[in-house]
What we know:
Layout: E1 2-8, E2 11-16, E3 28-34, E4 40-45, E5 61-66, E6 71-85, E7 91-99, E8 112-117, H1 119-131, E9 141-145, E10 154-158, H2 163-175, E11 178-184, E12 187-193, E13 199-205, E14 210-218, E15 225-229, E16 232-238, E17 244-252, E18 264-266, H3 268-274, E19 278-282, H4 289-303, E20 305-314, E21 332-337, E22 342-354, E23 362-371, H5 372-406, H6 414-445, H7 449-506
Parallel strand pairs: 9-12, 13-21, 15-19
Antiparallel strand pairs: 1-2, 1-5, 3-4, 3-22, 4-7, 5-6, 6-7, 8-10, 11-12, 14-20, 15-18, 16-17, 20-23, 21-22, 22-23
Helix pairs in contact: 1-2, 5-6, 5-7, 6-7
Amino acid sequence: MYLVKIINDGVETVINAVSNNNKAPRITGTIKKGINTIDSFTFNILPNNQGYTQIDALKTLIEVINTKNNKTEFKGRILLPKHSMSETGLLAKTVVCESELGYLMDSTQRYGEYHNVSVRKFLEIIIDNHNKQVSKDKQFTVGIVDVRDNNDSLYRFLGYEKTFKTIQDKLIDRLGGELRIRYENGVRYLDYLTELGYKSPTEIRLAKNLKSIDEEKDPTSIISRLVVLGAKIKKTTTDDEGNESETDTEERLTIASVNNGLDYIDDIEAINQFGIIEDTVIYDDVNYPNILYSKGQSYLKSNNKIKKKYSISALDLSLIGLDIDDIDIYNYYQVINPIMNIDESLRVVEKTISIENPQNSSINVGDKFEDIKQYQLNLKRTADTMKEVTTKVNNTINKVNSIEQNVVVVGGELGDINEIINVTNGNVEEMANLINALSNVVIQNTEDISQLETDTKTISTNLTSIKSSIDAIKTDVATIKTKVNKIDTLDSKLDTILKILQQGDTA
């Protein structure tokens, strides 16, 4: 499915062929793709591969093509080949590659101060600086740019950083947006777009194509107490001649005069959940306390979100024609897992492709944001589920205790025991299913994972013990039945003997 070729001075060599011939060249490898990142491709190659001796660091180019849809999954250069030999004497190379965005790490910017320039113009200045320093095969042409600032009039400085880091710092980190390399008529374009991708009709659904899912919640950006500071307070000084002048001090405007003497704002819900976590925000251009207070409230509200990120292993059913669309980076997919209360449109932000086993590829989706109230509701839902499980376990244990008391009863009460065992078995199976579902819910929806996992394991251990007790009871019941049958047989034989004796007395 994946054709891999290396290029040296324009000469192509296939190192992974799409063929049923067992003599065709083969490698094993993994592609990792992300948004605004330099993608990577790591592969292993053996000496019997025709490309083994043709791999040179920073010189050899490489391409990975999905032959099913004729899409280039990776295009870049060899970064680092590493030789190895196993205990058995087997030679191999592990080769790390980087995508073409890595070319932007081959140049540094030059100092400059730029006023009233558009986003596009500023990016062109950065790329021009890059193109002046590298060979033609590493150059870019600025393509589509639809990212804007408020006035589309930037005021920026350039220093002496790497070009890629400069683009991240001066543009992406401040304005957002995403980079894309695009080829048209043999020209390599660098596009800077607000957002890539689209809403796909393909669903990632439990019992369809969802293999596994892990949810990660990150509350580390939470601020429960925010100190809000404005412009520096100016101090008036008078010189010996009586002339007055103003100078800035390190003291800043606070919100104390409009906030009951307090220079901070509390998020009560966040404090109840996480305790006091204090931080500061500064607005250099704000000179009025009431405006400063309003900005602080808005900042606290927008900041106090808990990041959610999902790691998903899903089958790409488009490979066998069962889905309209493939699962690819940038796009949004409806992810549905009722057990974990997930039914959201989520964006693929990272993708890992196994070229020898495409079915083992995985994706990361997110970041989604969850406010404190939703976070608390999820914790409560988990606690309620845990309480339900505990109740069912206690009921099951009570039934087992009742069974143990009834085991001593034989004869006519054996049927009752069997009925109780069947009921208990049903409860145990129900409990096992519920425990499995709970494990997923608990792991995904609480920060107190360690304690809850311990509780879940304890319950599972109790269930195992219960099942063992039931098995022992079944064995005892079977033994009792056998003995009862023997007693019935003896009774029959005694009746026969008595009849024979009675006949003898009559004679």
